[in-house]
Amino acid sequence: MGMKVLLVGGGGREHALAWKIAQSPLVEKLWCAPGNPGIALHAECVPIQAEAIDTLTAFAVEKAIDLAVIGPEAPLTLGLSDRLRERGIAVFGPSMAAARLEGSKAFMKDLLDRHAIATAAYRTFRDPAEAHAYVTAQGAPIVVKTSGLAAGKGAIVCSTLEEAHAAIDRIMVEREFGSAGDEVVVEGFLKGEEASLLAFVDGERVLPLAGAQDHKAIFDGDLGPNTGGMGAYSPAPCLTPALVRRAVEEIILPTVRGMAAEGYPYRGILYAGLMIDGDDLRILEYNVRFGDPECQPLLMRMRSDIIPYLLACASGSLEGMSIDWDPRAALCVVMAAQGYPGAYPKGDAIAGLDRAAEVTDTMVFHAGTRGLEGRIVTAGGRVLGVTALGDGVAAAQQRAYEAVTRIDWSGVQYRRDIGYRAVARERS
Ligand code: AMP
Ligand code: GLY
């Protein structure tokens, strides 16, 4: 008897997960809540929102789900994993207590501090006057962050003191990010190159995935405000095998051990956002889920069936496992709606999806789309993640953009330079 799997979420990351999970011979039936029109090609979509944890739990029990895979951070921080585990369902995803690693930057920074794990110097504040005084004393550049979840937009890197004071007011006084800004983390600015190292974690053991890098800024050249991510690729040439080993031993394992020792063992995928500056390696952020869009190129490169890893994380049995990777590179270009990461229109008809799908070794993952009268229309800020494999990052990049240029809608925006650092490194 094959397994019944429930995937929670409806973005580009979940489309990649659905595509990968559906390929497993171990799976008999895959549901996705709420899913999207791309996911509907691989799973039965059910109209339950990812945050509706009561309804999701009832659905999982009714369908006798064998494994639940939780994509986004919101249901994790709301405790969906705990609810499902209470009902005897295997869950890929951390508990509510463990999800604080992403849900509360203050919690994360204090945990790193308790276990002497290298990160940026920081202080946390609930009073804007104290935050202003600290920033004045520290000087710029400096980074001001909401402690709570803000869809990747709550970290404001300030090159001047004026910007830093304005950031404190935006978060704490104008409350631009709502209650996510009740507490603020002010951090020292770190220079260097960022890379993403994701790892399967089973409570104790850590199995790193291939390296990845994303582009968070909206404009070419990594300029402009941060977004959830405008593109990503794997491998990340700057993440050498030696650095991966150090990241696991100096950062990820001590974090996982610290969490287990404190009574909230971590199970699921752990995303470490690293800052590399020569020999200096620090952890910038943790996410408690697959990165979006890092997930898309990573899963295109993963040759192994993903289900055994998801089960092993859920049941504490990662010991002795390894992952088979496609030696080729994969690169994802995010196509976004006009105005993103600010306000954007919805409902624009998307043309060219069929022609883009004809490009070899390319997947058009849906992020913010919906079906309307037989057409696919935009329904979010990040709309599509066009992802291609190639012999090297430059080849993957060329193929991804070949597919991107076949797709169009009114006001579409995307970066033209995804992967530029890796391509330059490849050439030299
Ligand atoms: P976070 O929300 O903490 O992941 O931060 C989002 C982005 O802001 C990171 O990917 C970095 O590009 C930038 N950033 C965050 N913290 C720092 C820091 N301490 N120094 C430099 N850049 C940072
Ligand atoms: N791509 C960064 C993130 O998922 O947070």
TrEMBL record:
Transmembrane annotation, as ranges: none
Statement: the UniProt record of this protein carries the keyword Nuclease: no
Source taxon at top rank: Bacteria
Organism name: Candidatus Magnetaquiglobus chichijimensis
Pathway assigned to this chain's UniProt record: Purine metabolism; IMP biosynthesis via de novo pathway; N(1)-(5-phospho-D-ribosyl)glycinamide from 5-phospho-alpha-D-ribose 1-diphosphate: step 2/2
UniProt keyword list: ATP-binding, Ligase, Nucleotide-binding, Purine biosynthesis
Signal peptide: none
Gene3D superfamilies linked to this entry: 3.40.50.20, ATP-grasp fold, A domain (3.30.1490.20), ATP-grasp fold, B domain (3.30.470.20), Phosphoribosylglycinamide synthetase, C-terminal domain (3.90.600.10)
Cofactor(s) needed for function: Mn(2+); Mg(2+)
EC primary class: ligase
One Pfam family recorded for the sequence: GARS_N
ATP-grasp domain ranges (all copies): 109-315
Family: Belongs to the GARS family.
Protein's name according to its UniProt entry: Phosphoribosylamine--glycine ligase
Single annotated GO MF: phosphoribosylamine-glycine ligase activity
Family matches, as NCBIfam families: purD
Catalytic activity: 5-phospho-beta-D-ribosylamine + glycine + ATP = N(1)-(5-phospho-beta-D-ribosyl)glycinamide + ADP + phosphate + H(+)
EC number(s) on file: 6.3.4.13
